[in-house]
Design brief:
Layout lengths: L4 E11 L6 E6 L6 E2 L2 E3 L6 H13 L6 E6 L4 E4 L2 H10 L8 E13 L13 E7 L1 H7 L5 H8 L3
Parallel strand pairs: 1-7
Antiparallel strand pairs: 1-4, 2-3, 2-8, 5-7, 6-7
């Protein structure tokens, strides 16, 4: 019998040092859709290692620009819509453990060390960036991620 599971990953929130705004990134494959840097854990990685790796890969930011401030105390899960689940099955046919149903993520809060940091979107996943209020980002992330974003971002 096939099983359904959730992909383990991380999400990185980078907070401005003075005004509480956070860095949001526009997706290259869905213009007008904004989100935070995120990515899946490799088999041998701790979540904080994944957070640093994804932040650098997707935004060009690293320890000289930001510092870890906090970790959300629980893993946050959400289900993908059926079209995304089908796309996952098509991209990864025969995956051990069955189809993935969604993601479960560990969220990390990083503080920018200076107000003038300049991320460099990777050009594939992300094509633009801006400082935004958390409420703005909740409204501009894809609908099926909103509850997860609301749960964490309203606790900052």
């Amino acid at each position: 019998m096939a099983s359904q599971n959730f992909r383990a990953g991380v999400v990185v929130v980078v907070r401005h040092p003075h005004n509480g705004r956070i860095l949001a990134f526009e997706r290259g494959d869905s213009r007008g859709s904004w989100q935070l840097p995120q990515g899946g854990l490799d088999a041998d990685e701790d979540p904080i290692e994944t957070a640093w790796r994804e932040l650098e890969e997707e935004t060009g930011l690293h320890a000289e620009h930001v510092e870890v401030c906090a970790e959300f105390p629980e893993w946050v899960a959400y289900e993908w819509p059926s079209a995304v689940q089908a796309d996952e099955r098509n991209r990864h046919p025969g995956r051990a453990g069955g189809q993935r149903r969604g993601q479960v993520q560990k969220w990390f809060l990083f503080d920018a060390k200076a107000p003038d940091i300049t991320p460099i979107p990777d050009g594939r996943e992300f094509v633009a960036w801006r400082w935004v209020d958390p409420e703005w980002l909740i409204e501009h992330v894809v609908e099926w991620r909103r509850d997860a974003y609301r749960k964490v971002l309203t606790s900052l």
